[in-house]
Amino acid sequence: MRGNPFAGGGVLKSVLVWLKRTAGLVLALAATGGVASFTPSPDGVVVAVAEPLPLPAPRPVPAPRDPADGIVYERGYKAHGADRVLVERWVLAGVAFRERVTVDGALLADRSDGIEVDYVRREWRAGPVRGLSDDCAPTYPELERGLADGTVTESGAGVPVGGYPTTVFRRRGTPMVDVWVNMTTRSPVRCRGAARHAVTFDLVWLPATEANLAQLTAVVPDGFRTVTERGSQHDY
């Protein structure tokens, strides 16, 4: 395993600056906690996993209109020099959102629904409701409505994703995004915002089971202290 990716502060500072530009929070405070352990992911990266501990009761998450495909899991990498920055998102559109960032296998931050967890400083805080301005994963019915009203255009054949051919659609607006769709299943399988340095996310659509809904809440590991103000603790 590589050395400490935060040594010297340069990588941490740059990644945290990028996080401020890309991360978002929605809704009010949700709460859970946990004890951190480590497990290898399918691509060989060691990822921290936390098991819940009792904290104040989370805000209820309403069931989505389509329980079969209610939650989208988004996974993408941002190149940062020699380091691999893994960005994972769980999104229940218009209801709840979570983002977890890992640098070279070490958890950096976990944020959701008003919770911000800092794994470097081993602390967490209740964050404000901010919204997510750069999410790029529409459902296929949303794309169909856009094709009808002119806000979505078909760009042509895209690269295969997961071994299946795709068609690319461009959704105009803020942000403007490109979406790769498996037309056999009519499921968006990849998306990328048009902004410079945007992350390309591969998409997995999940049913709204109790276990998947639990993934919408960031985990506060045991022993992390509570802080009330971000202040100047990081050079954002």
Polypeptide structure, described:
- This protein has 236 residues and is mainly beta.
- Strand 3 and strand 4 form a beta hairpin.
- The protein is globular and about 50 Å long.
- The longest helix is centred in the first third of the chain and has 13 residues.
- The chain has 2 domains: 142 residues, no CATH class; 54 residues.
- It is built from 3 helices and 15 strands.
Which features does this protein show?
single chain, 236 residues, mainly beta, 2 domains, 12-stranded mixed β-sheet, 3-stranded mixed β-sheet, 3 helices, disordered N terminus, disordered C terminus
Quick overview of this protein structure:
This protein is mainly beta and 236 residues long. 12% of the residues lie in helices and 43% in strands.
Strand content: 35-45%
Quaternary state reads: single chain
Helix content: 10-25%
Q: How far is it from the N-terminal to the C-terminal residue, by CA?
A: 28 Å
| Beta strands, count | 15
| H/I helix tally | 3
Please state the average pLDDT score. Answer: 75
> What is the count of structural domains?
2
Low-confidence stretches: 1-9, 11-42, 45-57, 231-236
Structural class: mainly beta
Radius of gyration: 18 Å
| Strands in their spatial order, largest beta sheet | 9-10-11-12-13-3-4-5-6-7-8-15
Ordered list of secondary-structure elements with their pairings:
Layout: H1 10-22, E1 33-40, E2 46-53, E3 71-80, E4 83-92, E5 96-103, E6 106-112, E7 115-118, E8 123-126, H2 140-149, E9 152-161, E10 164-171, E11 177-182, E12 187-193, E13 200-206, H3 210-214, E14 220-221, E15 225-227
Parallel strand pairs: 1-14, 8-15
Antiparallel strand pairs: 1-2, 3-4, 3-13, 4-5, 5-6, 6-7, 7-8, 9-10, 10-11, 11-12, 12-13
